[in-house]
Structures are given as C-alpha cells and as structure tokens.
Design goal:
The structure is a homodimer of 164-residue chains. Chain A is built from 2 helices and 7 strands, in the order βββαββαββ. In chain A, 23% of the residues lie in helices and 39% in strands. Chain A is of the alpha+beta class. Chains A and B meet through β1, β2, β3, α1 and β4 of A and β1, β2, β3, α1 and β4 of B.
C-alpha cells in the first residue's frame, strides 16, 4: 500500500511525555499531532498494592484495554457510515487475558492469552451486513491492526452470540 | 513456556463493558479480575470534530498510547528492583506513528508505522546494566509483548541518546 492511484495515505501521530512521580505512579501529558493537532491530554497511572503501588490512579492496563475496546467502537460507527449499513449504538463486553511466566524472583515474561469481544450492534441489520461492518472496522482500528494476538469477535444476532 | 519446574505462571485478566453514549462518545466500566480483584475503573472516550465527535473526552488512542508507555514505566521499575540494578525515576518521551490508507470514501485501512521511546532512567548505572533492565522490562510489559510493530528504544547515557 498504497496500491492504486486512488489511494490516499494519511498520518496519525501521537507524542507523549511520561514521568515517574511516585513509587509506581506515572503522570502523562500527550497530544495527537496528526492528522490534526488536538488538545493536550493528561492522564495518571498507578499500580495497586499487589504491585507495590499506592492505587492513586487506575493501572496502565486499564488505559490500554480502554483504548483497545473504544478504538473499535469508533471504527464500527465510522465503517457503518461509510458502508451505508445501518447499525444501532454499539456495545462491547470484552474479556482480555494474559499470562505471566516467572522463574524464581526474576522479572516475569508476559504473553497474550485470549482476547474476546462480544459485540452488540443493536440493530436488525442482517448478519452478513453486520459482518461487513465488523471486518472493515477491525482493519481500520489503529490498535487491533498492531496486535500479534487475534481477537475472538462474536456478534449478537437474534438474542444469541454468533462467532465471526 | 513454562520451560522448567521452577517456572510459576499467573493470569492477568481484565473485563470491560463499553457503551456508545454520544455521536462518537463511549463510556467504559472495567475491572482487573486477576491476579487480584481490583477497583472498578470508569473511563470515557470521544473523538474530535475531524472524526465527527464532540471532543467531550480524550480519544481512544490517547488511552492506548498512555497504557503502552506507562506499562513499560512500571516494568522498568519492577525489573530494576528484581535485577537489583539501581535506577532513578524513569522518564519516557514517546512518538507513535501510524498510517491510514483510504480508497475513495471506503473505510480506511490502518497500519503501524514507527514507534520510538526515548528513555531516561536518570541514573549513573553503566549502559550495559541499563540495557539489562530495559530488555527485561520489554519482555514483562503486557502491552509491548502483544504488538506486531517493534519499538525503537533509546537510552539517555551521559547526556546523549543511545540506540538499544
């Protein structure tokens, strides 16, 4: 890519400065620079007592998992609009599992284990069309495209979960 | 893995519920379930006007990038402690770049482009030891280990940036 004269390529760029400001606390200031210069955001993270922190803010993985799920939420709506396929207000219930392997008291080694998204587009649009929206959204999602774990997506159709 | 009788494996599990609550806004409630049951966190995301949103909260990628950078911040400190290598309070300046390719008005296709972390451990500890801390931390970081893009890390040594 780009694979045709008709393809336009754009940049998405973020810059962040993070400083350690407590035993396990971090304070972050960041900004999207491209495609538009956005407002500066400020976020704080901490760890709970099990990780030696003071629990003064949510842990880093709560930010990561929120970013992962909501990036897809945005793209579901953007894709539906661009494909002119009607959907309702999306809901996602996500379960995200990792494993850590530790030898003695050495630093542990992390790995992704199982990521599952149950997606309810709250619409009567047929399954085939909902699948088109989801397929496009997963390719547009800036987080999902850079993961080396596959996410198990299910769609809610007629009150039942359907693997897609 | 596990690769020896001495290896202990633990789980890290998050569950989140995200609901669309505005044109592009989402409200998220989530919780870490393992290794310990943590407090419920609540986070909101929105998009700016360039993406059809109301900018009522930071965009999803601000949460993702914050999670990515701070997860490594935590692991730098945890790894240094476990390896008994002294470091100061870490600082990271990060630049995270994606590209999007769009044909006409179809949903675009996202891809990672260049991720760079400039890391200042604020210590006189020799480079070789700092590299050991960083190498361990990148393997412990639950976000970095599930990325299919490599992060270009630099360490601040004697006032200069060193590629590692």
């Amino acid at each position: 890519m780009p694979d045709s004269a008709d393809t336009k390529t754009f940049d998405v760029v973020y810059e962040l400065s993070a400083v350690a400001s407590g035993v396990m606390r971090n304070d972050v200031r960041g900004r999207m620079l491209e495609p538009v210069l956005d407002h500066i955001f400020e976020m704080a993270t901490d760890e709970g007592g099990y990780h030696g922190g003071d629990a003064s803010a949510p842990p880093p993985l709560s930010y990561f998992t929120t970013g992962l799920v909501t990036c897809l939420m945005t793209q579901l709506r953007a894709s539906a609009k661009r494909l002119r396929i009607p959907i309702g207000l999306p809901k996602i219930d996500a379960r995200i599992e990792w494993k850590g392997d530790q030898v003695g008291n050495l630093p542990y080694v992390a790995r992704g284990h199982a990521f599952r998204f149950d997606i309810d587009l709250q619409t009567d649009t047929p399954l085939a069309e909902q699948k088109r929206v989801l397929a496009a959204a997963t390719k547009s999602c800036f987080v999902e495209v850079i993961l080396n774990v596959s996410i198990h997506h299910r769609l809610r159709i007629d009150g039942k979960w359907v693997d897609v």
